[in-house]
Amino acid sequence: MAISTTRAPSTESKTPFFGSKSRDKLIAWLWIGPAVAFVVVFLLYPVFDTLRTSFLNFDSSQFVGLDNFRHIFTDRSMLIVLRNNLLWLALGTALTVALGLLIAVLVDRVRIESFAKAAIFIPMAISFVGAGVIWKFVYDYAASGQQIGLFNAIVTRFGFAPQAWLVNGGNNIALIVVYVWMWTGFCMVILSAALKGVPTDILEAARVDGASEVAIFFRIIVPMISPTIAVVATTMIINLLKIFDVVYVMTGGNYNTNVIAVEFYNQLLNFNDNGISSALAVVLLLAIVPVMIFNIRRFRAQEATR
Amino acid sequence: MADASLAQKPQASRHTQRPREAIGARAFSPRMIAAYVFLVVVTAYFLTPLYWLAISTTKDNTDLFSSFGLWFAHFNLIQNLSDTFTFENGIYLRWILNTVIYAVVGGLLATVVSVMAGYALAKYRFPGRNLISALVLGAVLVPVTTLALPTYLLMSKVNMTDTYWAVLLPSMLNPIGVFLATIYARASVPDDLMDAARTDGAGELRVFLQVAAPLLVPGMVTIFLFQFVAIWNNFFLPLVVLSDANLYPVNLGLATWNFDPASHQLLFNLIVTGSFLAVLPLIVMFLFLQRYWRAGLAFGSLTG
Predict the structure, then answer these.
(1) Per residue in B116-129, pLDDT tens?
(2) Are the C-beta atoms of residues B46 and A126 closer than 8 Å to each other?
(3) Is domain B84-302 classified as CATH 1.10.3720.10?
């Protein structure tokens, strides 16, 4: 909403001849100055500096053109990193949004609504490190003896062999499950708020006409709250593009679970390669640009209808 | 039983109650039972790990690695607490205090900065306003973690790495806060009220402090809460700009215990207890201030 040109505030329209305009401008900049300063120093400058460094070699002493990017898109281990990020993006977004929506729809109709909502929302309060500690134990694997990991305790009880969940194939999905645990609550709360805004008359009319609940869900509810679904999905996409903590804490990017942000960290602090790490950051930033444009467009469209 | 109680609920209280009654009338249908089963399973998925954490804080290291995870063994909570707070001369307490300083000071300052900016964007017209609005909207999405290198270099240039400022200053960048404040200010501060104050001779500062600020308090609470949690849970920034363990926030400290392969097994009761204690204040805040979270989330997403 801040983007559009709304009606002139009354300060201007009511007192246009008191010379207050220039004073207003000055005061507005006083209010806004600190925020702008932080954006420039801790956001704009770092973005441009990262862009510059991405074309330089490991200690920024030499211009290497696109070499860093070529490495990222051809090196075998880097390609695994990119593949994992895509997997995170697709599965993470789909699972959090779908599960969040399903829970929001169902929870709206049961007596335990506020309890279930609070329970599902709580993991959001937990840091990734806390979640990492918890889930490491959930996935814990003992080569022999008693299985203390929650999953393996269940699996062995049903007579199956215990699994090293974080090492074996499918370990990326095991990590995504942790993310879903943390973020479904966020999706659910927002989607639930949107659901409350769907007019009941329409739903009742559809029921009277004999529409099934499934048809009502897909033909009425989903289209009506699709703007909110878009918001939630873009938030998840941004989150997942830069996913770091879960992977860093639980596997450190080992066993083929590496993602861009963890590799960025490794290149930066373990291999001291500023060029590659900056190039990775630029790849992330570029991936976010379409989402950003989409968001600003949607926002402007919303403003226009206001 | 579900349909009876649903039918008894006052129907007029909320518009959306009516279709529930329609569903409630079929409460024992297989579909409804399936819905309950699904929700119970999902709730278990979300709560079991936390339950495990709470139970585990009462176990010593032997029991942690040998007893059934979801039930008590020997009750060792008191010992765990005292171990956690006394290990390495009580560094855990220091980490907690650091985290509180980062989250409270950073959260408050970020809120002030955001509310000032949001108020100006909503209530003044000035050249560059559209540009700044676009900047804020774009900045919301930029993953600040990937900007760690220049931020780190900047900090070391002014000799601020390994100081509280290294964490506090970048924490004041809060585009979402500015964005929310703009929406709140536009919705809750009437222009007429500001004009009336101006007519009475109030300067712009007084208009802000005495007219606008009181109306913006609920918005400020929401912005503060979000930034507080963001700083409390921030991991990447302190990881990059701090190397002195005495300045670590609790997250980073716990992670160093967790990653040390030599101590990992020996310290596990401390890691578990420490994690639980660090999570506790946030859970309490979440449960008691749910109203503000929901308001912020819904406001931010439905209007933006």
Answers:
(1) 999 999 888 888 88
(2) no
(3) yes
